[in-house]
Amino acid sequence: MNSFDDLSEPLDRRLAAGLARLAAVARQLDWQAAEAFGLSPTQADILRLLTRRPEGVRLAVAAAHAGVRSATASDAVGALERKELVRKEADPGDGRAVVLKATPAGQTLAGQWPASFEPAVAGLDEGQQATLLRLVVEMIRHLLAQRLIAPQRTCVSCRFFRENVRPGEAEPHACALVGMNMADRHLRVDCPEHEPVAA
Ligand code: SF4
Predict the structure, then answer these.
(1) 112: number of Cβ within 10 Å
(2) If you measure from the C-alpha of residue 64 to the centroid of ligand 1, how many angstroms do you get, rounded to a whole number?
(3) Separation of CA 159 and ligand 1 centre (Å)
(4) In CATH, what is the architecture of 11-110?
């Protein structure tokens, strides 16, 4: 007798297709929000990154984050500078280099548009959100291992993360920086205190 498996596309392919649909919708919502504020999607991506990095980032980091070439990122940064949403400062670690920072006006503007996945996530209960967060972090880990994504400030790439040190408990992980136990729901995707694991 046939099982439904015989009638179905492979599970991984259906899952990838579903995620691609979600990503497309999220991207569309991002573009609409950016457009409403007079920004291109790349400008919006870079501005949002800079609002989370008050210490500033170099152009190459901004380009990798936005998934564009350096020249495209440079054009976007130029436009953001003209709009007085971003400024360049000397890199304190290298006087010949510059870092990009969001201006107060840039911070205010970026704070006004919603995270694009919010409508999808809002439909899940807290337990489902925690499970999904764990899986998202796991997917980021795999992408990092394959060098398919720019370095991320997530727990699984952080030298302070102690993963599953209390298996089976409600808070199986720990953050050695703050000395506290963590559950999956506490995992961070973009932590300002993150320090990368030594190569
Ligand atoms: S410092 Fe941040 S990224 Fe690192 S383990 Fe602690 S919470 Fe996670």
Answers:
(1) 9
(2) 22
(3) 8
(4) Orthogonal Bundle (1.10)
Paired tokens of 139: 């997917």
Count of alpha carbons within 13 angstroms of residue 25, beta-carbon side? 10
Atom of ligand 1 nearest to the CA of 157: 3
How large is the average pLDDT for residues 41-46?
Answer: 92
Cβ(165) – ligand 1 distance below 6 Å: no
Q: What is the largest CA-CA distance in the chain?
A: 72
Atom nearest to 178 CA in ligand 1: 6
Q: What is the pTM of this model?
A: 0.82
CA 16 to ligand 1 center in whole angstroms: 28
Is the pLDDT reported for residue 142 higher than 70? yes
Question: Which H or E element spans position 5?
Answer: helix 4-7
Domain ranges of the chain: 11-110, 124-186
**Whole-number Å distance between alpha carbons of 19 and 71:** 29
pLDDT tens digits, one per residue of 144-191: 999 998 889 999 999 999 999 999 999 999 999 999 999 999 999 999
pLDDT at position 99 is 96
The more confident residue out of 76 and 114 is 76
Name the residue among 52, 194, 55 with its Cα closest to residue 115: 52
